[in-house]
């Protein structure tokens, strides 16, 4: 199976979701929150898990740290899919970050979950990732 790369803000919602997926520690990588941290550079294929920012607008939906990560060609060439967290209060912009990343990187937007996900979301993502990596 490939790796999971995720970005989580201080709130930790995305991290809580990723933790529930029970991936091995060496297969889960966090995009740094602060610019003072060393950048993450991937060496193997991964699915990206990101929150949606912007409070309901398209502008600012993709966190700047994720944009920086994907602007590195080494990372961008290894992304295989995106999973997005969001807030249904954002209306049409719910999980918009995943739509934007999917279109720009030409990868599938595999799943959308609200805030830190339900047990059903976790089960569906686990099963989906297993099928995805074994096809």
TrEMBL record:
**InterPro entries recorded for this chain?**
Flavoprotein-like_sf, RNR_Ib_NrdI_bac, RNR_NrdI
Q: Which GO molecular-function terms appear in the entry?
A: FMN binding
In which domain of life is the source organism classified? Bacteria
UniProt function note: Probably involved in ribonucleotide reductase function.
A Pfam family reported for this protein in Swiss-Prot or TrEMBL: Flavodoxin_NdrI
**Belongs to which family?**
Belongs to the NrdI family.
Give the protein name, as stated in the record: Protein NrdI
Its source organism is Helcobacillus massiliensis
């Amino acid at each position: 199976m490939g790796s999971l790369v995720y970005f989580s803000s201080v709130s930790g919602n995305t991290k809580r979701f990723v933790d529930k997926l029970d991936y091995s520690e060496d297969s889960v990588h966090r995009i740094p929150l602060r610019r003072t941290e060393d950048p993450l550079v991937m060496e193997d294929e991964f699915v990206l898990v990101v929150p949606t920012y912007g409070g309901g607008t398209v502008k600012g939906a993709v966190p700047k740290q994720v944009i920086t990560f994907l602007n590195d060609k080494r990372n961008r060439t290894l992304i295989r899919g995106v999973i997005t967290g969001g807030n249904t209060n954002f209306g049409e912009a719910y999980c918009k970050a995943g739509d934007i990343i999917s279109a720009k990187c030409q990868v599938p937007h595999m799943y959308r979950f609200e805030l830190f996900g339900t047990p059903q979301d976790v089960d569906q993502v686990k099963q989906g990732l297993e099928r995805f990596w074994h096809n």
